[in-house]
Amino acid sequence: MKDNMERNFSEQERVRREKYNDLVSKGRDPFINTVFDRTHTTTQLNEQFNKFSKEELQTKQTTKISTAGRIRLFREAGKKAIFANIQDQYGMIQIYTRQDELGDAEFEFFKDLDLGDIIGVTGSMMKTDHGELTIRVESFKLLSKALKPLPDKHSGIADIEERYRRRYVDLIVNPETRQTFIDRNKVIRTIQSTLDSKGYMEVETPILHQLRGGAAAKPFATHYNALDSEFYLRIAPELHLKRCIVGGFEGVYEIGRLFRNEGMSTRHNPEFTTIEIYVAYKNMDFVMNLCEELIRESAKAVNGKTTLTYGGHKLDLGKPFKKWHMVDAIKEITGVDFWKPMSYEEAKKIAKEKGVEVEKHQFSVGHIINLFFEEFVESTIIDPTFIYGHPREISPLAKLNEQDSRFTDRFELFIINREYANAFSELNNPIDQYERFLDQIKEAEAGNDEASDMDIDFVEALEYGMPPTAGIGIGIDRLVMLLTGAESIKDVILFPQMKPRG
């Protein structure tokens, strides 16, 4: 086996390559094996045979099984027998080989295998004197040779950065990592099945956008050669999904990747997954209830219950979530009452007194209200809480509140200081929408690089008429973090973005 470039191999790697070259010279190249027919996975073996006693299994020796997996453990039982553990996606099972049953040559071949090699085995089921379900191997096939050794089973991957960079190794050696991504899949499938049962349709919308829109965030830009134009990786699918509602679909959703050219932290990854849902003839209150339902059902799918502990806090997701108007929350925490009518200068003076910095593009009382919430309230929220009543200026796509047009029918869900969802009764007035886009342009000109562009096509779509609609976006990654107890968003993304190695 020749490598295309010079590499520094460890002693173990050199030995494994020598073994591989020896296999090739003997006509046993494992990499040309293309298929192995399994009759059972490790889970199926346990389900079918573990209920039998050692004596009962001895009467079933004619039942032949085949399974495959990666060798994780070798243990010699004298000179003529070997126990090993093999691992597939579902778990591990013990296998037992004997020299007098495999024959001298095959037994020696088996003894020369390495931890990490992938084999297929055929045999019958037995139990040891200790009652452990075991495959008594009659024949085996080497399906893939591991040319690199796995990390030591006790120390694992000591460097957390390496766990993320070499997720494939992390998945092999850490069953809890595999379980996290099995649970992630359960969350997504639960959300899909719940929405499908309501008659909503899953759709796909573009990832490349000509305009920035659908959320306040800094985009990734790219050049589209065929059109000789600048495009953006989407920061939200919202405007396209609402076009679907204009077109006549009454319930649509999309689960997919979004891209925001912002910082990385334990809570943020520039590429992340959300679900956005839009339902015609509904309002903010409807999607509050839908949000609770989706989170509760996901919790039950992962943990079998709605109670959990995260970050030292005990939560009961089965209880109704708290509803707290943003202005009431600020008043309760800081004593500042933004219900009172005030000028921008008056609000800015209060902000200065409280040590809140107001930037040039934050040119309204609404912007200052949001700054107060982020500075003083967000960090106090522990139990699931719907913060609603966001100011008009920070909600360019939300419908105005009928009782007080300074605010919108919008909410965000917070749990233990983190935002999990953003939703609102959708703005469907094209004239108002056009004016809000103009306000976004003013913010951009004042230095806000997260402001949206003018999307005149979306305005024209609204001019054809969009029914009253409610929409919500839920962060899948953060929800999986909460339900699995993960401390970092990188723990729930299979291949997170990483800084280049120094």
Automatic annotation (TrEMBL):
GO terms for biological process: lysyl-tRNA aminoacylation. Mg(2+) 1 binds at residues 412, 419. Its EC number is 6.1.1.6. HAMAP family: Lys_tRNA_synth_class2. It catalyses: tRNA(Lys) + L-lysine + ATP = L-lysyl-tRNA(Lys) + AMP + diphosphate. Mg(2+) 2 binds at residue 419. Its cofactor is Mg(2+). Transmembrane segments: none annotated. Belongs to the class-II aminoacyl-tRNA synthetase family. InterPro entries: Aa-tRNA-synt_II (IPR004364), aa-tRNA-synth_II (IPR006195), aa-tRNA-synth_II/BPL/LPL (IPR045864), Lys-tRNA-ligase_II (IPR002313), Lys-tRNA-ligase_II_N (IPR044136), Lys-tRNA-synth_II_C (IPR018149), NA-bd_OB-fold (IPR012340), NA-bd_OB_tRNA (IPR004365). Its main location: cytoplasm. It is found in: Cytoplasm. Binds 3 Mg(2+) ions per subunit. Residues 184-500 form the Aminoacyl-transfer RNA synthetases class-II family profile domain. SUPFAM superfamilies: Class II aaRS and biotin synthetases, Nucleic acid-binding proteins. Keywords: Aminoacyl-tRNA synthetase, ATP-binding, Cytoplasm, Ligase, Magnesium, Metal-binding, Nucleotide-binding, Protein biosynthesis. This is Lysine--tRNA ligase. CDD domains: LysRS_core (cd00775), LysRS_N (cd04322). It comes from Spiroplasma clarkii. GO terms for molecular function: ATP binding; lysine-tRNA ligase activity; magnesium ion binding; tRNA binding. The gene is lysS. It comes from the Bacteria. GO terms for cellular component: cytosol. Homodimer. Coiled coil: none annotated.
